[in-house]
Amino acid sequence: MKMQYKNIIFDLGNVLVKLNSLGCMNAFKVLGMEKLIDSNPEAKRLMGELGVGLISTEQFCDAARNLTLTTVSNHQIIEAANRMLVVIPDEKKRRLLKLKAKGYRLFLLSNTIDIHWDYCVEKLFPYQGHNVEDYFEKVFLSQRLHLSKPDARIYEEVIRQAAIVPEESLFIDDLQENCVAAENLGIYTFQNVEFDDWLDLEL
């Protein structure tokens, strides 16, 4: 039986945006910032703090320079970080617009930093005059909410701010642990194992 959802919540990376981790790592290597991408515990701490907004982009760049003993600019660091982001295929943007036209309320929930989000808004989401506001009613980002998936509190915040009923909602994410956390709150989920899997959903 086909479920009748009213709300669809999308993850960003590996659901809408194709990612290139290797390209990002190589870009940081070129800058002499290998310590940012290895198993260095200080680098992991910085990334974690940035991801939930405990430090700003500027503070992250300063700390990254101190950690790697480099003098690269904020702009160079941001450009290297954005090598992670490849494309949002037009087919996916068209599907979002069609789903919205059908009456679905669309939301985005992502463990995303402002560096990546700003690039997506400026470079990846625009399509035939449409911008991110034309796809989603509201966007929920970890850096701005100071919470990250799979913490139950970030899903609770989405439910509260979007005023949605969990049992009327579908969450699409590529990671199993994020789907399980949503299911624990009554939200239906679809794990997007391969990049285009969700396009085959009957919605």
Automatic annotation (TrEMBL):
<dbReference type="InterPro" id="IPR006439">
    <property type="entry name" value="HAD-SF_hydro_IA"/>
</dbReference>
<dbReference type="Pfam" id="PF13419">
    <property type="entry name" value="HAD_2"/>
</dbReference>
<dbReference type="InterPro" id="IPR036412">
    <property type="entry name" value="HAD-like_sf"/>
</dbReference>
<protein>
    <submittedName>
        <fullName>HAD family phosphatase</fullName>
    </submittedName>
</protein>
<dbReference type="InterPro" id="IPR041492">
    <property type="entry name" value="HAD_2"/>
</dbReference>
<dbReference type="InterPro" id="IPR023198">
    <property type="entry name" value="PGP-like_dom2"/>
</dbReference>
<dbReference type="InterPro" id="IPR023214">
    <property type="entry name" value="HAD_sf"/>
</dbReference>
